[in-house]
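Sequence in, structure out. Go.
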Amino acid sequence: MSSHLYLFAPENDMALAANKGHYTPTAVVTTFANDVSLLPMWYAQGDEAVVLTQQQVDDKMQSTFDALGITARAVASSPDDVTMCSPWGWSDYMVNKLVRAGVDKAILPDAATIDTLRTLSGRATSRTIMQALADEALGYPMPPLPEVLTTDADVEQYVTSHPLTMLKSPWSSSGRGITIVQGKYDDKTARAAAGTIGKQGYIMGEIMQRKVLDFAMEFYSDGTTVRFAGYSLFNTSVRGVYQGNLLLRDAEIENMLSQHIERSWLHNTRSAMERILTQLIAPHYRGYVGVDMLIYDANSNHFLLHPCIELNLRMSMGMVSRIITDRYIAPGSSGTFGVDYFSHTPDLIEWSKSMTEDNPLSILNEKIVKGYLPLTPITNATRYVAYIVVQ
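Output:
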């Protein structure tokens, strides 16, 4: 008998930025992590799956799990028989968190592996991937490569050489650590860039494109080979803050993307990415990895593909959406996945009640046909909720 332990820990991205084993998350991030801690129930698989959480699975949620054939268990501390761990992402902080929860340190990544994973999680890896893609014959023109900037002079020269750029911290999360610069290097930009370089060693410079669609290619590394795991089609703000996913089949997403660009571009990129990530990632990592991409308007409805905006060396909301769609959405149905915040719990409770009344849930043959479904519990203290709406 063995258990596979899952843990939702969105604070891991900020722990990577802090680079401290004993990092303390902010109150906001802690609330988010606690409120949504049962999310892995939706992507854990099999009777051996165990989700580490302080939340309780109430009778209503358990009946939904039963109707969908979900057999994962929720526990407050690590069982003795854990042989594999799949946290949201890896860092020194995550290793220490799992050890404190009772996981045997012998089954966790060692310090050298964690250091390698942190380096690969940094945004400089996007340039490495872009350079490797540029060496392949993918059938479309590559956008300019992002630049790794290590001095004040580098940053000034970069942002003043282009009309619209983005400066990105090497490690950050969900749109944080991104500054949009319109060709002018003012004191505020200089101070922010210097602070990032001082703390994290470099800052990334990227030419900002006119975005048409955000999407990602998701992959899975088994420790030897990286294979394509599906598409993610999502929405973000101008600054890259995640706003939600569409619950669509891979074929449907590819059809939408190919209305703007050649389908062969997607297939060529996917194959090249599998080869590149197998060499770069597979020897060090087992788990899901996402590559954020976009379709952009290069010049008056001349659409091109940007094949690597960012590498997410961790689980992602996009991959959660992919798994939910493939496992639990009925053929012919589609929908949206979202994570929302409410400053007042009564407002969340009232909103969820209204959504339930307006979108009654229908499940047939362990598949969701239609309706609103909160994926995580809503209690008298909840501020964040993950949910889906299916039509």
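Check: Residues 147-207 form a domain with the Dna Ligase; domain 1 fold (CATH 3.30.1490). The radius of gyration is 21 Å.
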